[in-house]
């Protein structure tokens, strides 16, 4: 047994995200170049909204000045209170509903959208205190929000979204220029 070389399973084991979630993408959100969003869909219908790796916020040299879930004077995503098995009280969002606004250190503002229709279950309040999580771990601790699509719409919500291969094809056609 001493002579048998053990394989390192860390290199071969898929991450939790890759194992339990399907990645979907929305490229050039609302016609804005490179403002790409990623939706992680779990088999139980829950969708986690994150930034795609190509989003300008995640590009080299960017730092986040602030993140705000205050969408308008009368609408704050932080006021979202959900209770019970059927998630009563959660705000209903459409696929172009703004979830938050991110301001970078160069005062560039980016609005992050829900990308899918459903009930807003949770926003990530941790990134308000630690915005660097959004840069360091955008698919895990740096997520934006969790949305639960209606049961009857759960199969059709991905119709307007791109699979990873389709998204990578769009990104490759953009060329080597960096987003603003």
From TrEMBL:
Signal peptide: none annotated. Transmembrane segments: none annotated. GO terms for biological process: dendrite morphogenesis; regulation of actin filament polymerization; regulation of filopodium assembly. Keywords: Cell projection, Nucleus. This is Protein Abitram. One of its GO terms (cellular component) is nuclear speck. It comes from Iconisemion striatum. It comes from the Eukaryota. The keyword Cell wall biogenesis/degradation does not apply. It holds the Pfam family GCV_H. The gene is FAM206A. Belongs to the ABITRAM family. It is found in: Cell projection, Dendrite; Cell projection, Growth cone; Cell projection, Lamellipodium; Nucleus speckle. InterPro entries: Abitram, GCV_H/Fam206, Single_hybrid_motif. Its main location: other. The lineage of its organism: Eukaryota, Metazoa, Chordata, Craniata, Vertebrata. One of its GO terms (molecular function) is actin filament binding.
């Amino acid at each position: 047994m001493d002579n048998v070389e053990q394989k390192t399973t860390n290199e071969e084991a898929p991450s939790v995200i890759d194992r339990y979630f399907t990645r979907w993408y929305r490229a050039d959100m609302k016609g804005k170049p490179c403002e790409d969003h990623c939706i992680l869909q779990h088999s139980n219908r829950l969708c986690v909204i994150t930034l795609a790796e190509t989003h300008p916020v995640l590009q080299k040299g960017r730092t986040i000045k602030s993140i705000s879930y205050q969408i308008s004077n009368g609408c704050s995503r932080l006021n979202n209170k959900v209770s019970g098995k059927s998630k009563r009280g959660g705000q209903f969002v459409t696929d172009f509903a703004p979830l938050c606004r991110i301001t970078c250190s160069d005062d560039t503002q980016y609005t992050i959208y829900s990308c899918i229709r459903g009930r807003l279950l949770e926003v990530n309040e941790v990134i308000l205190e630690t915005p660097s999580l959004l840069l360091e771990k955008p698919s895990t601790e740096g997520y934006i929000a969790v949305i639960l699509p209606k049961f009857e719409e759960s199969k059709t919500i991905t119709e307007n979204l791109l699979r990873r291969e389709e998204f990578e094809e769009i990104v490759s056609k953009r060329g080597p220029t960096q987003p603003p």
